Amino acid sequence: MTAQRKHLVLFAVISLALGAAMVSQAALLAKAVQRVFVQGDSLSSVVGLLCLLLALMAIRTLLAYRNGKVGLRMAATAKTNMRAALLHNLIHASIPSTIRGQTGEKVSIALDAVDEADSYFSQYMPRMMEAAVITVLILIVTFTQHANSGFIMLFTAPFIPLFMVLVGMKTKNKAEEKYAQLAQFSGTFLDSLQGMVTLKIFGQARRQQAEIERSSLGYRDATMGILRIAFTNTFMLETIVMLSIGIVALELAIQLLVFKSLAFHTAFFILLLVPEFFSVLKNTGTAFHSGRTSMGAIKKVEQLLADTEGEYMSPKDQKGAGTSDGTVETSKTGPAHAAVISMPPSIRLDHVRFQYAPDSFGLETPSISLGQGENIAIVGKSGSGKTTLLHLLAGLLKPSSGEVLVNEIPLSQYDEAAWFARVSYITQHPYIFAGTLSENIAIGAGRRVTRAEVEKATEEAGLAGVAPQLEQGYDTLVGEGGRGLSGGERQRLALARAFLKQPDLILFDEPTVGLDLHTERILQRSIATLAKSATMITVAHRLYTIQHADNILFMDHGRLVDSGRHDELLERQPQYAQMVDVQRKGGLA
Fold first, then answer.
1. In the predicted model, what is the mean pLDDT of the chain?
2. How many domains does the chain have?
């Protein structure tokens, strides 16, 4: 903010000097013409005057160049601050805000929208400062020379800013539409690239091609709409400027030739100042159009900053909210809990309610406690809310009402980084990044690890036999999304990450579904070893996983119906007994 204020002060000083140079240049040129063409002096007698005029023109050029440089520096600072704030927020944002929206949209805003904000700082701000300083200076000088011309300029000048406001309102709406279309196009394009194999398998590639084309044409139309406004704006500004200068010139001609009440030097001096006056206003109008377009981009940046503002961020991590001048502010959210988390944790659901959206699926639980170091299973029919409950327990979703209490402290009060440092969450489809096998495993540690540590974690996860079979062992590139690894190998890689991390709370979302019996047994042995010193919560279908759990949470239609051991639920809950019976008959036990 301080740097931007300095830039604005520098704009004002340079604009004042530039205005003085314009007036002085016009005065010298009028004097030279007066002496040569009216008084009949020789050209050699005005050489000194012409040299001074040339020096003033050079100074004016340098001042205009300097103003542009300051604008570019201001734009670079603002863009750096905005992009840094975006990256900071995206890194430190809470999980719920991170998973909202499309990845391509966020990338487009961080790259394209921030770059489009350039013209607001490099063109709009300098031109607005010039309009505020130079036009006032020229008006004052004109009034001292010839009041009638000053009044004409004063009354015709407002037509330009009035037109600018009307066009600017339309441009801002069009700019917001343009960036919405760009974000949609970027998101659709990235989604299509990531899912290209799926699209081809299901014969939807051409349909998605048509969707990309539709999105691209929408962006094109929005851009052309802004260009149409820009061309109209330029035409109207030129028309207004031409008519205004013509009126002043006509009035000067009448005073000079008809009434003979005005000296040639004065009339010519004013006639030189008038185009300068309206040229500054015209340039401001053009910059105003660019500035309003940039404001649409800045609004998208601010919206993404607001959307990614962390809900569980620590005070240290709550710096990074951007403002329209590209600076960074500190978030106003409350402080996170700084206490050391006692692990393995005890967890209590205190009448938790959650709903994704109005009139959509909802979840509710009674008050229920999960003990330290217990093996918890979440069971229920498909769509009963098992994964949603797991996300609430993990802190990936925030309850609409009620609290998830960890060691009797609301989870929302814990520092997110400290909480996730103690938690491992293994899904059915763990994400494998483009990189080596070793790098993908080392992600789990959150610190620098040795190759020996990676190999030990790999062995504990039952993945040790895979690395030697790969072409370059642990340095083999496994590909984005785990290309080159089977489903079971990806799951074991995720377990290796957990062994490296040694978490105190382990969350599994049906990690063995779809795996062959041999791979499943390897995973189950590794999971049992990993869970010896941790609280483990598993979304489970298999009967042998359920029946050995210390506590089973039975879900039905979004409600936590009951909890207890396997035998207890068989006696109390007919629905649970029926589910178990179906599994036994289906051979899933």
1. 82
2. 3
